[in-house]
Amino acid sequence: MFATVGGGCFWCTEAVFLRAKGVIRVRSGYAGGKTKNPSYRQVVSGKTGHAEVVRIEYDPTMISLRDIFDLHLLSHDPTQKDRQGADIGSQYRSIIFYETEEERNVALEAIQQAQNKFNSQKLFGIFPRRAEIMTEVKKLDEFFEAETYHQDYYNKNPNQPYSIINIVPKLQSFEVRQALGRLESRDGM
């Protein structure tokens, strides 16, 4: 089975999903735009309509599509429009792609539950948090695999400044670690 999601730089998203039990393979790439076989330079120009995404191959007996979408929504800030931190532009938008209506419904349910969680949170324990999830849900037309140097980026470049500043904190995030642990403990391990 496959799932395709985007939420900021694909290096970060890839690093998270490579650590999820039941994920077989993760490929960084581009989807959601009009340009056929885009290059990284074309996508980061913001003119192709594509988002940086990852295509996740997973074993549904070990991890569900809903688990993948929940982890995706935890692993980035889905309330930011067309950006994640310092990565700005529509190519960094939060997006979930679906191939069937069932997948679309699972995505919408995951987003609604995440929105309910955001709505129940309070800043400083007092003020209601008002943050709308901006994650798009879109039919996948085509996935274009990114250049080889983008694949398995963090594992090949753990000491690069981008990895240290952006990927390591994401992997150390309490919510992401908790979600990854939940997924692992479902097997009784």
From TrEMBL:
Alphabetically sorted, this entry's keywords are: Oxidoreductase
Record flagged with keyword Oxidoreductase: yes
User: What are the EC numbers?
Assistant: 1.8.4.11
UniProt domain Peptide methionine sulphoxide reductase MsrA: residue ranges:
3-162
Q: Name one GO molecular function term.
A: peptide-methionine (S)-S-oxide reductase activity
- Give the family per the record: Belongs to the MsrA Met sulfoxide reductase family.
The protein's name is peptide-methionine (S)-S-oxide reductase
